[in-house]
């Protein structure tokens, strides 16, 4: 039974969002991390067969939606190796896992999406955008931060709620300009495109069996890179050059494993669209809807194994950026697009399989 909440004041691949269900109606404008079983290091949840139609809220009125980063049934951990990934069964070593969500809302009994008024904490949430961060800055994730974030918090008006909807991505009006001038969490240069602005909505970096991580620094012009430096480089946008040949003092990724960077791209070439940043041609915002989701007992699982299931992460198509950088016609993005529920205009949009609901146990 639903509880009542207390009153509170990718050839041209144009990526389109696809949902598991039609989007709900309505205008969309403290940590509680899932723990790992210490004996098995397996995440303690199960995928629900039938989620109860209720959503609870703490007595202080702040509603919390929990997220969990996973690789299949195993919890995501920096430095852990995961086998059987993608079409080649590659072994991966993740080096980053972060993404933005926005337009978070709960679905009431009438099917209306009621926007969550996010807590403006000055760090993880700004306006209707929140950053989820599963890397902890350790080992291969050294280019990240020690702090993690696995929740979205906000307030809701009184009502009966049974579902959840949100967008993977940053709203068009905020997906512009320089991160140096933006408010946190939009001021993170690691999550920004080099130019002409905007953000990587989803950032996953990893070494794979076929594409190990390899940042290098050249001591002099024309020098060949020595053994890899500690990875990843502190900061600096990747410069894609002939492997082993770099300019002096430039930190280069050649290759940087198989990065998955999803976000609005080709931003100078096309007019804006309904799910596109102003001037961007490849809208990659993706709406996710769970008709049955209880914030008191459920968690949103973001599964890298599912995301990469249709991809060959052991090779990079010649003449294209490393991994998938949301570039038009890049074959390395096609499998990812299908798993994210993105497709070409007028074509069938497969259900996304990156996110799924689960029970916290």
Automatic annotation (TrEMBL):
Pfam families: MbnP (PF20243). Residues 64-316 form the Copper-binding protein MbnP-like domain. Residues 1-17 form the signal peptide. It comes from the Bacteria. Keywords: Signal. The keyword Protein transport does not apply. Transmembrane segments: none annotated. This is Putative repeat protein (TIGR04052 family). It comes from Stella humosa.
């Amino acid at each position: 039974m639903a509880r009542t909440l207390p009153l509170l004041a990718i050839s041209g691949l144009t990526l389109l969002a696809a949902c598991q269900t039609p989007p709900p109606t309505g205008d969309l404008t403290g940590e509680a991390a899932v723990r790992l079983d210490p004996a098995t290091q397996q995440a303690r949840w199960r995928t629900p067969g039938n989620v109860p139609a209720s959503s609870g809220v703490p007595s202080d009125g702040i509603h919390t939606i929990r997220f969990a980063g996973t690789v299949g049934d195993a919890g995501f951990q920096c430095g852990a190796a995961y086998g059987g990934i993608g079409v080649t069964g590659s072994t991966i070593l993740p080096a980053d896992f972060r993404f933005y969500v926005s337009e978070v809302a709960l679905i009431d009994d009438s099917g209306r999406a009621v926007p969550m008024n996010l807590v403006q904490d000055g760090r993880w949430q700004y306006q209707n955008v929140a950053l989820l961060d599963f890397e902890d800055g350790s080992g291969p994730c050294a280019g990240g931060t020690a702090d993690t974030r696995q929740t979205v918090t906000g307030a809701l008006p009184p009502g009966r709620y049974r579902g959840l909807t949100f967008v993977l991505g940053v709203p068009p009006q905020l997906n512009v300009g320089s991160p140096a001038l933006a408010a946190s969490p939009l001021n993170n240069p690691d999550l920004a495109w080099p130019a002409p602005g905007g953000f990587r909505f989803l950032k996953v970096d990893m070494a794979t069996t076929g594409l190990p991580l390899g940042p290098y620094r050249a001591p002099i012009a024309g020098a060949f890179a020595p053994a890899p430096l500690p990875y990843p480089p502190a900061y600096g946008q990747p410069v894609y050059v002939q492997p082993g040949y770099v300019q002096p003092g430039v930190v280069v990724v050649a290759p940087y494993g198989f990065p998955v960077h999803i976000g609005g791209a080709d931003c100078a070439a096309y007019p804006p669209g309904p799910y596109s940043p102003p001037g961007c041609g490849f809208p990659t915002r993706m709406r996710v809807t769970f008709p049955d989701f209880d914030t008191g007992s459920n968690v949103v699982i973001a599964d890298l194994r599912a995301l990469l299931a249709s991809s060959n992460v052991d090779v990079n198509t010649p003449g294209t950026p490393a991994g998938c950088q949301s570039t038009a016609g890049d074959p390395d993005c096609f499998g990812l697009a299908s798993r994210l529920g993105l497709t070409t205009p007028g074509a069938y949009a497969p259900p996304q399989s990156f996110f799924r609901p689960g029970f916290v146990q």
